[in-house]
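To: structure subgroup
Subject: Chain for Friday's discussion

All,

I'm putting the inputs and outputs inline so they're searchable in the archive.
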Amino acid sequence: MFNLDKDAYLQLIQHSGSLRELYINASTDQLMVLACVYNVIWTYTLSEITGNVSQVDRVWTLLPLLYTAIPAFDLAIKTYLQAPPSTSFLAVVQTTVSSRALLLLSLQLLWSLRLTFNTARRGLMAFTSEDYRWPIVKAKLSWWQFKLLNLFFVAIAQNVLHLITGIPALLIAKTPQYSINRNDYLIFGLGVLNILAEFIADNQQYAYQTWKRATATKEASEKGTLTAKERKLYSDGFNTSGLFAISRHPNFAFEQMNWWLWSLLVLLGSKLTLQETIRNFISPLSMSLLFESSTRLTEGISLSKYPAYRQYQKEVAMFIPQFTLLKKLYNRFPDEYLQSLEVAHRMWYGYGELTWEWQTGIRSVVYPGIYALGYAFGDFLNLPVTLPPKLINAAFATAQDIAMIGFMRREYGDDKAKAYVLLAFTNVYDLYTRQRSLSNTAETALTSIALYNWPFHRSFASNQRFAKSLVCISLAIAVRPTNALVWIPLAVDLLWRRTLNLYHALLIVGCIAWVTFSIHCRPIDTPRTISLLAMTCLDSWAYGSLMITPLNFIQTNIIDSVSHFYGTSGASYYVTQAWPLLLNTGIVYFMQAILDMRTPMEKALRSVLVFVTLVYTLLAHKEWRFIQPLLPIAMALTASRMDVTRVSKKMRALLGIGVLAALYLITTHMRGQVEVSEWVAGAEGVQSVGFYMPCHSTPWQSHIHRPDLKLYAVQCQPMGYNEEKDFYASPLEFIMKREEQQGLEDVVIVFEALFIDHSDLQDALLTLYHIDHAIFNSILHEDSRRRGDVVVLKRTA
């Protein structure tokens, strides 16, 4: 994206006799890099001379505008400089500057005016002014540490961040563009409304600060003439009114939204490759990460100054209002925590629950290892323990969408890509599961990326992408060994149609051989491939002894039939239950499309759906999530036969039902099972907690994160003593026996259904405990034992 070859810049300077020649000879990205270097030098030098590190802060209002203007007007300026003197610059602009670039520049100009006005009225544009946070940071660091911070973070990193903001405009200048259309005007309108909302938030904060510091307010407080609401606002010391009643930093939320909208404008209007799409979102992602870390510094200062701020944090979200539907990172529902996050938590922090699978070595640590790295990253940035996994899940979901939309664009064009988006974002199952920590979710994302890079056509580009596909396939198989089933039909198809050269065909044969040998042969007889050896080494290191998890998995679940403990289903399960559940509102289109496969690629993909479904049908233990990696393929084939311009109103309404259902599942269904663990995390004066409910009902230390607590939950081992069975056979006898033998916990947590079905247990417990509070869990529940609220009981003193 940016030319960072220093020799190229030296040659550019040597062959340019003047600034005019330098400008004409430099490429657009070189001009942007040179501007960045210049800004680093003068802001750092000035900060060292004055001792004031807010020099970069003062130009925040202008530099993003500069880095957008350079690619927007670069061609126009170069054309004008080399044109005859009589040439009108306005005429050159009209013929060389993209209308989309002007829309983007207009939004940034409005943003710049708003920010400049707000900065100036707060006095921060004055040469001697300094952000209030810098003296606090300076006091915590030694002089040399602060010097390094000023150089690398303030001067270099922030100026590089400004440079990155120009990437969307650079993509407009460098990539083919669609004609200006209603999408552009829609995004522009949303951008203007977002800036207006940010201006309102700025005004509310400025008005509050002005009121709080006014002499008249201080006198009114001393005389007791303030209203009850005013007294609270004044005593709190921070604004909790207006937009600040639903978001602790609404202005920061709108600020981040600006960057995402600007990148969205470019995405919808440009013909981008997958790599260019990723680059397009580097800017908003970088800005969001910057705001996330800087806001935590701000909140740390607020906590030290205002005692009531901690309660405000519990009641109001940092950025996104808690009642909104934008819960990609903040969803609340139970997950497969014990197979991913709990293991990762134990890997990084050294404590947490491990289920029987991890004690017998049938699971690989590759997948939870990803979350362990997330915890390490979160600790480095001082993030809440629950946030890194959500960021990773969001990254998997985003990667899946980008890959599949890119696949549809390449194979079918933009209209079919829009049809895929329509199906994906109205599919209840996909919306619900894409945010979860299920290994199948990561497997599905990796399968989608591999599918995008799979060489369906014989070409140089396809062969170049094949290596990327193999990397993703290897990772997917490491996460779930059964993912190999997806690629067997596609590998056979490639060899049959000879869409690969001989070298890559041999790689395919090698991969099939690796799968076959690693499943059916003993370790001592199997030649190790690099990937299998790497996974074996990692698992053996984690378990403390030689461990080949795929073999253990097959031995335990298939040969020894331990998976039967979790239920068995009939041969029609996937056809009559799983596929209708996965496709839900889109199943009408799927039934039409699956019979109308025309091209070799479509037939190969259909064979994947049929083959994998048949193999899983042969197994007694069946789950809908086993075929989850096939869902993007099914939706792609379905979208290929849809015409989004002719979707009837009734069908649109049917598809829309999926969105409403997903919103309920994401925001409401079973949320109490997660919220109760979050409550335990913050409970004071508690030493032990007991969860008397069906096993695996709540997350554990991945949400509680407290090694000081003694935790107990009813267990359900598939082999040996089944504690859960005894508990539900006679809850009263079970709990009273525990009370006599070892004493119950300080806090007991149950489902309301337990009291409904066993009133004698409620009466007995209320002689020892009192109901502290109840947490709403769901309207209806598929498990009758989990009906009603989650009830929290505290031992009576």
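Points worth raising on Friday:
The longest strand covers residues 769-775.
Residues 337-667 form one domain.

D.
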